[in-house]
Hints:
It comes from Nitrosomonas europaea (strain ATCC 19718 / CIP 103999 / KCTC 2705 / NBRC 14298). The chain is α/β, with parallel strands linked by helices. It is built from 10 helices and 9 strands. The protein folds into 2 domains: 10-73 and 152-261, P-loop containing nucleotide triphosphate hydrolases (Rossmann fold); 81-149. Helix 4 crosses helix 5 and helix 7 (192-198) crosses helix 8. The chain starts with 9 loop residues before the first strand and ends with a helix.
Amino acid sequence: MTTAVHAPAHLEVRGLGHKFALQTILEAIDLDVTSGEVVALVGPSGCGKTTLLHLCAGLMPVRTGQIISSFNNPACMFQQPRLLPWKSTLDNIALGLKAAGTGRDERTRRARMLGLQTGLAHEDLGKFPHQLSGGMQSRVALARALAIMPDLLLLDEPFSALDIGLKAELYALLLHHLNTCSLGVLMITHDLMEAIRLSDTILVMAPSPGRIVHRFRIDLPAMQRDDAFVYKMTAELLQDSAVRTSFRLAPIKSELLTRQELPC
Ligand SMILES: Nc1ncnc2c1ncn2[C@@H]1O[C@H](COP(=O)(O)OP(=O)(O)OP(=O)(O)O)[C@@H](O)[C@H]1O
């Protein structure tokens, strides 16, 4: 008996551009995400990260360039949890399963398991969104995204509103899913440390128009990155002039000195 070996799924973005009215928001974007890979988009506010993610999610039509994807089951998680206020936590988590036609018993079982895995308590599962804190709502949103067993996750700053302990918990949960399900992930973050902790490739964007100005590859598997590695790598990236320019940070002193030393 032979076992079929599936080629890894792939998201391929080539020459992507986007305009809102006459304003060019994105220009010449090329990127790739393969199963099992986490790609982080970092860059200043307004450089077009969310627009890029929405184009990849198929939420907006592509007019310039192309996006080709062989992922079958993408899931999105946005900055706002976007829960349905009239549904319980459990039903919110199970929403995608219901849409996919999963029977009630099975979707309740899976939603309950994921709710508990994301750190919700049994009694939270019966509550409505307005009875949950912002952090709990984010857990529900993550559980809802994972419930459909996606092969691609598109994440728009999913952890930005969470405290440091909760972030660490959800990072661990996400990494566990990445390892066990070989998910592809394209995530937006403002947090360079978060990008270094979770991703294999970091794409640094600059604004006006939004474009990728630097690509970093981190070869050490995410599970093996400890705090010391993350701090060291963050410090290194913050020395990079493309990163500093993108985040509108002042040039480092040595660059200033070099400039002052230049002959007039
Ligand atoms: N629907 C829209 N119509 C017109 N302009 C828009 C629309 N959505 C976004 N923009 C503009 O496109 C630019 C990029 O916005 P986008 O939300 O993609 O940036 P971002 O990098 O994700 O920002 P942030 O990090 O603050 O979320 C901004 O100038 C924004 O004002």
